[in-house]
Automatic annotation (TrEMBL):
PANTHER family xrefs: PROTON-DEPENDENT OLIGOPEPTIDE FAMILY TRANSPORT PROTEIN, RESISTANCE PROTEIN MDTM, PUTATIVE-RELATED-RELATED
Membrane topology classification: Multi-pass membrane protein
Organism this protein belongs to: Pseudalgibacter alginicilyticus
InterPro entries: Dipep/tripep_permease, MFS_dom, MFS_trans_sf, MFS_Transporters, POT_fam, PTR2_symporter_CS
Listed PROSITE patterns: MFS (PS50850), PTR2_2 (PS01023)
GO molecular function, one term: peptide transmembrane transporter activity
Keyword entries, A-Z: Cell membrane, Membrane, Peptide transport, Protein transport, Transmembrane, Transmembrane helix, Transport
Gene3D superfamilies: MFS general substrate transporter like domains
Origin: domain of life: Bacteria
Descriptive protein name: Peptide transporter
GO cellular component: plasma membrane
GO biological process, one term: oligopeptide transport
Subcellular location: Cell membrane; Membrane
Position of the signal peptide: none
Length: 528
């Protein structure tokens, strides 16, 4: 990465009292946030990967043997509330605690939530307490750590987008490792071990952030009081006032349309932890023998070790920069990585020592993070150098691709008899579905955040980002509730019909967006 000095960034860091040490051309503090978020996403996605499969697994195998419908409904409430509470968490940080205290409090509450879930064998009550703590803790954590990243850079810095890209890679690295290791240990060793492991790394993330908090100067220390107003902010406010009211109104209409479209996308996309998990558990051939098993073991070993190697290299670079000033931050993160290496090595060794390979149900969920890491830069270059259509067209592409993923699943499940409770179709159908879903996500999710930022008046940006999360909350709730009908629809019609319905809904929304595109482009008034 370009190491040349960004004078505006340097001046901004000095003004905020932020440690000016740089790593890969970015403030070292960004990487403290990188690891904090990485371990939080490890804990969240590690737990989410286990949630549905644990609920529907037979009691004899340690699960609760819930019906698919009941499991999907709990999943709906949980994921919906996880995306709704950040609205309240952001308000609490803005008005009372500041970003830092909100992040630490959220991390502590989530750690306690994981600990509670690890005691589900003693009483089911602990499991429900854990879910409530996870919801509340995420609300305090999620919006405020993202705000900390943004505050490291002035709005004029050309490195701000790149900073968020690095942070986004931390999100996906954590999600990948969490689903891989918590899912494996939960399914192969014991559910409570998987839930508890997620909490261990949430604790490490909290500790490394706490002992490195002074690297951020005054950023996030106190609630925003707007005492100091920078020149850039005055200019932005003035620009808002100069934009004619009808243009502001038109752009807000476009934002509203895109938010509604995102609900149709995430309604389908978030079947990953619900109906797609049911499909992976009950209808997918996961026992691999002979050459197929050997090939999978090597692929799985590479997928396990390579990401750990990459993030270890990032930690080594951060350690060289800040160990002398913040030794405990590096020590706690290093200890967490020693544990990760031990677990990763043990997992690979254990699998190679077994004659028969059984792919875990949760393994399929890592494919989304893997494909994002593999494809994100290609999509970025495509928008920049090859083809950069309007936001509505990108959204339509995302909706079409997520629908295509369910068309694949519909085709793959077409041989399953009506009402069948089990089957053994090839795992290639799930792999292809996750590939299409990820390409759809890359067309819609980062683009959506960008357009909310570009089309929103500055004075309403926070509110509109909050509404974006609210749209995701609605989508997650609908996704889980829709998934609860998987058995009813497959018994009345077929499993293939269920996936065909899921495919059709976002694809219809895509057609509507394409029809509306000329009008929406006009209403954006020059924003593209």
């Amino acid at each position: 990465m370009n190491q040349e000095k960004d004078l505006a960034l340097t001046a901004h860091l000095k003004k905020q009292g932020v440690d000016n040490k740089m790593l890969m051309g970015h403030p070292a503090g960004l990487f403290v946030l990188f690891f904090t978020e990485m371990w939080e996403r490890f804990s969240y996605y590690g737990m989410r990967a286990l949630l549905t499969v644990f609920l529907i697994t037979e009691i004899g195998k340690g699960g609760w043997e819930w019906t698919n419908a009941d499991a999907m409904q709990l999943y709906a409430w949980y994921t919906g509330l996880v995306y709704l509470t950040p609205l309240v968490g952001g308000l609490i940080a803005d008005k009372f605690t500041g970003f830092r205290k909100a992040i630490l409090l959220g991390a502590l509450i989530m750690t306690l939530g994981h600990a509670a879930m690890a005691f589900e064998t003693i009483s089911p009550t602990f499991f429900y307490i854990g879910l409530v703590f996870m919801i509340l803790g995420n609300g305090l954590f999620k919006p405020n750590i993202s705000s900390m990243v943004g505050n490291l850079y002035p709005d004029s810095s050309s490195k701000k987008d790149a900073g968020y890209t690095i942070f986004y890679m931390g999100i996906n690295a954590g999600a990948f490792l969490g689903m891989l290791l918590c899912g494996y240990i939960g399914e192969k060793v014991g559910w409570h071990y998987g839930f508890g492991l997620a909490g261990v790394f949430m604790l490490f993330g909290m500790l490394q952030f706490y002992f490195g908090r002074n690297i951020f100067g005054v950023i996030g220390e106190q609630p925003k009081k707007q005492i100091v107003i920078e020149v850039d902010e005055i200019v932005e406010a003035t620009e808002d006032e100069e934009i004619p009211a009808h243009i502001v109104r038109d752009r807000l209409v476009v934002v509203g349309v895109l938010m509604v479209a995102s609900i149709f996308f995430f309604f389908a996309f978030e079947q990953a932890g619900g109906s797609m998990t049911v499909f992976a558990k009950n209808y997918t051939q996961r026992i691999l023998e002979g050459n197929a098993g050997t090939i999978f073991k090597w692929i799985d070993a590479i997928l396990t070790i390579f990401p750990i190697l990459i993030v270890t290299w990032v930690l080594y670079g951060l350690g060289k920069k800040i160990y002398n000033e913040y030794p405990l931050t590096i020590i706690f993160t290093s200890v967490s990585f020693v544990i990760i290496w031990i677990l990763g090595g043990w997992k690979v060794y254990r699998e190679f020592s077994l004659e028969q390979t059984e792919v875990t149900v949760s393994w399929f969920q890592i494919l989304n993070s893997f494909f994002i890491i593999a494809l994100a830069s290609s999509f970025s270059k495509m928008w920049e150098k090859v083809w950069n259509p309007s936001g509505p067209i990108k959204f339509a592409m995302g909706l079409t691709l997520v629908g295509a993923g369910f068309l694949v699943l519909s085709l793959g499940s077409s041989s399953i008899p009506q009402g069948a409770k089990e089957a053994s179709v090839s795992m290639i159908w799930l792999i292809l579905a996750y590939f299409f879903h990820t390409t759809g996500e890359l067309c819609l999710s980062p683009v959506g955040l960008s357009y909310v930022s570009k089309l929103s008046p500055k004075r309403l940006a926070g509110l509109l980002f909050g509404l974006w999360f609210t749209a995701s909350a609605i989508a997650n709730f609908i996704a889980g509730m829709t998934g609860s009908y998987i058995d009813k629809i497959s018994e009345t019609y077929s499993l293939s019909t269920f996936f065909l319905i899921i495919a059709a809904i976002p694809m219809i929304a895509a057609v509507i967006l394409i029809v509306l595109n000329p009008k929406l482009k006009k209403m954006m008034h020059g924003i593209n």
